[in-house]
Amino acid sequence: MNISYNWLKKYIDFDLTPDEVAAALTSTGLETGSVEEVESIRGGLRGIVIGKVLTCVEHPNSDHLHITTVDLLRHWARRTLSVWLRRRRGQRL
Questions:
Q1: Which of 20, 36, 52, 74 is the most buried (most CB within 10 A)?
Q2: pLDDT of residue 68
Q3: Is residue 6 within a helix (H) or strand (E), and if so which, with residue range?
Q4: CA-to-CA distance for 93 and 48, rounded, in angstroms?
Q5: Strand 66-71 vs strand 77-82: parallel, antiparallel, or unpaired?
Q6: Using one digit for the tens of pLDDT, what is the confidence trace for 62-79?
Q7: Is 24 helix (H, G, I), strand (E, B) or coil?
């Protein structure tokens, strides 16, 4: 049977890491096979960057491309080429 660390923490107040909980359960006679991290999204949300569209103008040589300036919320802006038709100033992406 698998038991979620977060589920256990919801019902029992303790300050142990998952490995320490496994060791404590083993010392009381309960067998623990392993401790593994489960992510609902593989890789978690590491690497995701949130930005805000500062400007969005049509590309002069295309009828479906836009040139956008995106503030990546890290104190710098980047120009991008976009096919997203409904992108407009002030949106977050």
A1: 52
A2: 81
A3: helix 5-11
A4: 10
A5: antiparallel
A6: 877 888 887 776 666 565
A7: helix
User: Alpha-carbon distance 58 to 67, whole Å?
Assistant: 6
In whole angstroms, give the CA distance from residue 24 to residue 31. 10
The pTM of this model reads: 0.44
Among 40, 70, 65, smallest CA distance to 53 is for: 70
CB contact at 8 A, 69 and 27: no
Residue-level pLDDT at 4: 86
Asked if 89 contacts 56 with a C-beta cutoff of 8 angstroms, the reply is yes
Question: Can you name the residues that pair with 58 across neighbouring β-strands?
Answer: 66
**What is the Cβ-side half-sphere exposure of residue 10, based on CA atoms within 13 angstroms?**
5
